[in-house]
Amino acid sequence: MKILPALSLLIPVAVAIWPLPKSYTSGDTVLFIEDNVHVTYNGVSSHSILIIQKGHGTVNSTSPSTASEIVQTAIQRTYETLFSKNFIPWKFHPRNSDFEPSTENKKYITSITLTQTAADPENIFQAPVGEVDESYFLSLIESGKVTIKAKSSIGLARGLTTFTQLFFKHTEGCVYTTLAPVEISDEPKFAHRGINMDTARNYFDVDDIKRIIDAAAYNKFNRFHIHITDSQSWPLVIPSMPDLATKGAYRKDLVYTPEQVADIQRYGGLLGVQVFLEIDMPGHTSSIWFSRPELITAFNEEAWDTYAAEPPSGTLKLNSTEVYDFLDEMLDDLLPRLSPYTGYFHSGGDEVNIQAYLLDETVRSNDTAVLQPLMEKFVQRNHDQIREKGLTPIVWEEMLLTWNVSLGKDVIVQTWQSDEAVAAVTEKGYKALVGNYNYWYLDCGNGQWLDFPPSSSEKYWPYNDYCFPRHNWRVMYSYDPLHGVPPEAHHLVVGGEAHIWAEQTDPVNIDNMVWPRACAAAEVLWSGAKDETGGNRSQTEASPRLSEMRERLVARGVMAHPIQMPYCIMNGTQCGLDH
Amino acid sequence: MKILPALSLLIPVAVAIWPLPKSYTSGDTVLFIEDNVHVTYNGVSSHSILIIQKGHGTVNSTSPSTASEIVQTAIQRTYETLFSKNFIPWKFHPRNSDFEPSTENKKYITSITLTQTAADPENIFQAPVGEVDESYFLSLIESGKVTIKAKSSIGLARGLTTFTQLFFKHTEGCVYTTLAPVEISDEPKFAHRGINMDTARNYFDVDDIKRIIDAAAYNKFNRFHIHITDSQSWPLVIPSMPDLATKGAYRKDLVYTPEQVADIQRYGGLLGVQVFLEIDMPGHTSSIWFSRPELITAFNEEAWDTYAAEPPSGTLKLNSTEVYDFLDEMLDDLLPRLSPYTGYFHSGGDEVNIQAYLLDETVRSNDTAVLQPLMEKFVQRNHDQIREKGLTPIVWEEMLLTWNVSLGKDVIVQTWQSDEAVAAVTEKGYKALVGNYNYWYLDCGNGQWLDFPPSSSEKYWPYNDYCFPRHNWRVMYSYDPLHGVPPEAHHLVVGGEAHIWAEQTDPVNIDNMVWPRACAAAEVLWSGAKDETGGNRSQTEASPRLSEMRERLVARGVMAHPIQMPYCIMNGTQCGLDH
């Protein structure tokens, strides 16, 4: 039996758990697993679990408790992953090697015992950062007994996710591990581990979004942030204001109904991924113009770059009772429908363009001394309403760092522009999310999408999109959320998000844009950016593990791109060089 | 009726033929088309055509002539494209606009008359550059009669491809054009318009390759170059040397059999896309070591960067009778099977590493004065054998420009390193292919795939892959094959290729890596890089047309990525800026 410290370069490729567990040991005994394996949860082998494992049904939504639902979903997902969405790991062994275990005299996993040692928070779907203990302990002994213990249902789900990554499909169709005995103790470094998906620049079907959430959960992400509206389209149905989506969506039918939003939230919630929405305000709102032109100033100006970061320009008026009435009504409609499944609502606040308020008849000024009190009032009104509905606000960094809005200390501030912003937010005593666009913006690098004649200023030329070049997984992996933050403020860095903005991403290519690169962010957020020596984690160690995770994602129907050719992953570290 | 010069910025988005025809006019009369439309080819309404249009069969391979097969394939493809692989163009019209024609009192396309005015070359599948006249004339008059005239069967196929791009799917399911009357005269600028696909760094199924060829034909490419072997794998089955693939492929079953190669070649040939193979020699051959280690020197050296551009190192020995015997036998087996479907064979010749020959016991030298005569002999032997089998050699530029091999003037020299290389090749009087890696390498920009510790030299750091960054379509579109070539040598620039090397590309992401960016190369090669003023073609004009071509590719099952969000293409040129 090999004792493998988590950071050793000696980790055999086969033990390719992603993200890296806090500690584990494994051996080299082969065990097979079959779909009649006996699973118990807190001593109960429920009928519903049996129904699930035989593939006769899905999770019964009338189950007695949320914890039970989450665990049953995790068990169902474990069966699917092991028996329907698994892969033959030929790429991870030398060419034409006889790498598969003998299928004679098979020994089997005999039981899976799931033990939850504490009660879940009252409503785990809404739990704030840090209130769900996601740690787990996993033991797989050579006699075939599997034990997973956790303090929460989501901890058990995380443990089962890890469990599936011990197993491979055999060319004869059966499923095996070569790693028994295994013992793993694991817990996340950061409490908020998210992906932010833009569904406004392009529309994505509910199934596309669920596919991203499924892969996110498989990487132990626990937050899914939907940037659901923006200047280009408003796909979110607000039943009391039907024109918002009917006129503001790209097409009448490319919308998210209340039922679909709840479906997405519930889908995520059952996978331990809390889904929250962002309505970005006051900028990034020009799609409201299509139904309520009186609320928007500087709409679709020809010289859009004077008034916005990208076309079309337009922003909510900043000192308008009509805008306030609109927000009262719109958020009163929306927020109570979101709160059963999340504790958060993101009110946006990035890239506010002050020139737009020169055209706003309620303001007529681009003087920040005039604008700041109006912004303060605007944000506080939003946040009061958000809190009144039982939710905690999240805002983009500019509201604090540029506009100096006196945010409540409950607010989470999402940074994106720099590591300095993280330090500045925490210095002011606020909880911060990281996601520096030079590292964790997944959309970068496709080059300019704006159409400019060759005579245009160089700034717009093909390579010069705002965050060129593409950040490959190594760049994302080298990003330390705590960089530049003094140790006494580390606790305020509650986590971060990888971002997929959708100017050049739609359902056809989103998988490839997000995966497997977002896995790098997942590991940084779960396992931390630094190894035991305090240096960046080794890309050489991570590389074959990520290639294996990529194969697992492909096996579950996610079109993740390869990061190395088979020659490299077949041959250990031969695609590196020591000098 | 609008008269639309091909280069006008006034081209309505709906007339989005890609690549741009040499000249056309169109109107605004609506005509529908149904799958019982009467099609004749040189006056014959053949039974087989009727069978195809009713979907009861595929092309009958016992058809009387190749020309008839090509035309029948084109007709079948036209039906599939119009009625099964079409799209609703909502993205190309203002939000929520009523853009579709009324379906009351429909007028129809009444007949499609295909006239071939000259006989095809004796074996059109093998035709050398310039010997197939691909020009066509297309007329669609308001009464519903369609006439396509061409001098060759492939010209008719090109005309039918253009024809399908006049039509859209209606939400009610029918198919229409809004552009009658239409008159188009068209012909290609360059004779060799190709894609080069690497099937050695990663393996691709025959269906993956056919999908790329299908999309290539839809962009009027006429060549498909398969870089079928390389140092990482040898997937090509040579029946007289079974171990080559059995041991040299990534997996015993990840191979291309003679039947599969012929199937791919025939598939391309019937679409007017000549498929030829490359066996890259003498470098890029280390996969031969797995079956014939005695033929390879410097195999898999640890300091691979001393001996090769990427791992594993290894090259055919340069002065070995065993190597010569191997090549005699291997090419004698292979070439006669290729020649029914192509006039070309690519013998490689790029990136030969002279240090490797220090380890070659048949040479023991890195002195180019010693190596050059051996290389001369090596290449001449290959080319003699290629010619003997009725094929014309293609080589990479280094054989001429670095090694000064006295190539026959029949040889086509494929450049990749610079525009200067094109000028140098033509100055020596050779036919040149273009494809400067700073413009037309589709694999660039994913960042480093080699695993290096952070302490490595900066050269290897994440962004520094050899051709970083990613070339977006605007960069590819700005590439002029004739740049730096004096007018009197233009006729020697016979065309070019876009390249997809497969270090980070496999079947999961290849569509997205190739499309729609390769379309930019297709248009440069068909329509020329320059407009009537002699300047680069306008990206502002091309952008919405390319977005539409992208939708047509997606409709045919190709996962091409978007280049702009719907907001931009719905709104004409509002995603540009005039200053």
Written description of the protein model:
The structure is a homodimer of 579-residue chains. With 579 residues, chain A is an alpha/beta fold. Chain A has two domains: 23-186, Chitobiase/beta-hexosaminidase domain 2-like (Chitobiase, domain 2, 2-Layer Sandwich); 199-535 and 543-557, Alpha-Beta Barrel (TIM Barrel). In chain A, 30% of the residues lie in helices and 16% in strands. The first copy, chain A, contains 17 helices and 17 strands. In chain A, β13, α9 (368-388) and β14 (392-396) form a beta-alpha-beta unit. In chain A, α2 packs parallel to α3 (153-164) and α8 packs parallel to α9. The radius of gyration of chain A is 25 Å and the shape is globular. Chains A and B meet through α13, α16 and α17 of A and α13, α16 and α17 of B.
